[in-house]
Amino acid sequence: MTHPRRRATTLLGRRAVAATVPVAVAALLTAAGPATAAGPTGASGVGDPYFPLAGNGGYHVAHYDLTLRYDPATRHLDGEAVLTARATQRLTRFDLDFHGLKITALTVGHAKADYRRDGQELVVTPERALRKGEEFRVTVAYNGTPAPVTDPDGSLDGWIPTDDGAFVAGEPQGAMTWFPADNHPLDKSSYDFTITVPADRTAVANGVLLGQRTAKGRTTFRWRQSEPMAAYLATATVGKFQVKQYTTRDGLKVYDAVDPREATAAAPVLKQLPSVLEWESRLFGPYPFRAAGSIVDRAPNVGYALETQTRPVYDRAPDLSTLVHESAHQWFGDSVSLTSWKDIWLNEGFATYAEWLYAEQHGGDSAQQTFDSLYATPADDGLWEFPPGDPGSGANIFGTPVYARGAMTLHVLRTTVGDRAFFRVLRAWAAAHRYGNGTTAQFERLAERESGQDLGALFQTWLYGRGKPGGPSGS
Ligand code: ARG
Ligand code: ZN
Prior knowledge:
About 25% of the residues lie in helices and about 30% in strands. It is α+β, with helices and mostly antiparallel strands and about 475 residues long. The chain folds into two domains: about 10-330, Immunoglobulin-like (Sandwich), CATH 2.60.40.1730; about 340-465, Orthogonal Bundle (Neutral Protease, domain 2). Strands 7-6-10-4-3-14-17-16 form an eight-stranded mixed β-sheet, with no helix packed on it. Strands 19-20-21-22 form a four-stranded mixed β-sheet, with helices on one face. Strand 8 and strand 9 form a beta hairpin. Helix 5 (about 320-330) packs across helix 6, helix 6 (about 345-360) packs across helix 8 and helix 9 (about 420-430) crosses helix 10. The longest helix has 18 residues, at about 400-415. It is globular and about 65 Å long. The protein starts with a helix and ends in an 11-residue tail after the last helix. The structure holds arginine (ARG) and zinc ion.
């Protein structure tokens, strides 16, 4: 079967070890209301039903300035994070998300602030209350041995050590394992990274490389991600890498970093990146970022690739279909972010459908053939275990129904409204929510508007219906 291969097979295998979301966290969310006796405090989460403590209330982060120093031999990380934020309400106290590591200093503005830690919540009490609308700066100095978090499906994400550095990928939760963050895709920010590693290693983050300097056996890399980015899409992957930099015909700055052990397998695939991005730009509209590239690591304990913004990170040399998938996420997932993790099909269904379209237009199976072979799977198959628009819990967000039935939903939409309207819908979606967020309900309305059709029954059946949808298969 041609659907989510590496991503889903690994994930299906992991179902058995899936952990459960602690029930107690839900209670915390309600406990942290907008106002208490002590005055207005920022909520401990943005209200995401699957990850109640993800993100925070009461402010938005405009910019993260992260300075990191990592020693792969000892696995020690030294960090300083400077967050430039704006209060959306009066705040006597607010939370950041930060997991593990030790804090050595914390200031808000120029004044030392009180803080306490409660699981992943870093609760900060500034010396004086912040006014609604006030811009403020939080500086956190920290260090220690970063470790990944285990997700509800049993997978690891965050700062994941490798034999020569670290594979750094944060979907959905792991950003908080290496920097204090407002860790939910609702809050998107620009980033600067200054990363120092031993001189025989390379540190690769998002966006454009501003410069690098070697002194006293260490190299410092400066990266800038100017377009808004969700925290989970940030990376600072470290390793022994072969680096290749070039500019495409369209003026896009490409930076590839490849583990030499993966170089032979990766080369023919990475070479296709400019043509894949051009092809996707024709289908989805202009590529949203000024930088691109690939990070090909060797990280055998990871089991997935991630669409880290501008520069996806692969746990091994990718095949072309995976490159197409992670590239499509730059539009669907990265530029247009989800609003709630239950809407994950807006990322994975779209990126998977891009793989089908790529095959169709490059001499492979047609999308209809891919759809048909999936539709032929028996009703008791895992593919029909839950509907993609309502995965039910954080343990299911990377399950096969999200990827494959999510893509099937788009295919049924396409065959219902026709190619012209369908591709107009994809481009309108990418344009309307560029650098922002979207919901499934907004997508449904946009599809109806662009096609002029009532699509209620289609979405009800394919996104929300329990079990295998019966009747006409959309052909
Ligand atoms: N979004 C990634 C993809 O391209 C999958 C990330 C999986 N993350 C995880 N923690 N299991 O499909
Ligand atoms: Zn994906």
